[in-house]
Amino acid sequence: MNGSSETLLRQAGLRVTAGRAAVLDALSETSHIGADQVYRLVSRRLPRTSIQSVHNVLADLTDAGLVHRIEPAGHPALYERRVGDNHHHVICRLCGHVEDVDCVVGQAPCLTPDSVHGYAVDEAEVVFWGLCPDCQAAVNHDGAPSSHHTKENHV
Ligand SMILES: [Zn+2]
Ligand SMILES: [Zn+2]
Ligand SMILES: [Zn+2]
After folding, report:
1. Ligand 1 mean position to 140 CA, how many Å?
2. Which tens digit of pLDDT belongs to each residue from 96-155?
3. How far does the centroid of ligand 3 lie from the alpha carbon of residue 97, in Å?
4. For the sheet containing 127-130, what is the strand order?
5. Measured in angstroms, how far is the CA atom of residue 13 from the centroid of ligand 1?
6. How far, in Å, is the centroid of ligand 2 from the Cα of 98?
7. How far apart are CA 134 and CA 25, in angstroms?
8. Distance 94 CA to ligand 1 centre (A)
């Protein structure tokens, strides 16, 4: 069990469990991954863990503010450890690769809507969509991305 994950869990007022620590460590290893990939990483260390317990742990960690959940349209939810800094994401339409984009404004919410209908707005979720450099190169090469490339998992 990773020492810093234990400390984080304690600081967040959560009981330290092997599953929670393993999920935090998995997300330190790779960012912007879905529950399935978290499960694969966690089960290397805890072979008896279940996908359902990984989902439960992700929900607990998200509620506790230790993990940020991104829900890009048409994609399963992705998780990351980078929380609380109002950064944004750029996502590749073809392969789904995700990169962090620092917010030019910095504080949340960084967009000013025309009208918020009386809501106290504290966050603006911004997702930039496009083609990553690899997919741009693949498209320019053969006019269409190869099937090999679109199946490739960049994260
Ligand atoms: Zn791509
Ligand atoms: Zn991010
Ligand atoms: Zn911003």
Report:
1. 13
2. 999 999 988 877 788 888 888 999 888 888 899 999 999 999 998 876 555 554 444 554
3. 20
4. 98-101, 88-92, 127-130
5. 39
6. 8
7. 28
8. 5
Residue type (1 letter), 41: L
Q: With H, G, I as helix, E, B as strand and everything else as coil, classify residue 16.
A: coil
Q: Which residue has 């967040």 as its token pair?
A: 12
Instruction: Please give the distance, rounded to the nearest whole angstrom, from the Cα atom of residue 79 to the centre of ligand 2.
Output: 8
Residues 52 and 25 sit within 8 Å (Cβ to Cβ):
no
Which pLDDT tens digit goes with each residue over 38-69?
999 999 999 999 999 999 999 999 999 999 99
Contacts of 85 (CB under 8 A, 6+ apart): 103
Q: CB–CB of 75/86 below 8 Å?
A: no
Counting ligands in written order, the one closest to the CA of 134 is 1
User: What's the length of the chain?
Assistant: 155
pLDDT of residue 151: 45
Taking the centre of ligand 2 as the mean of its atom positions, its distance from the CA of residue 59, in whole angstroms, is: 17
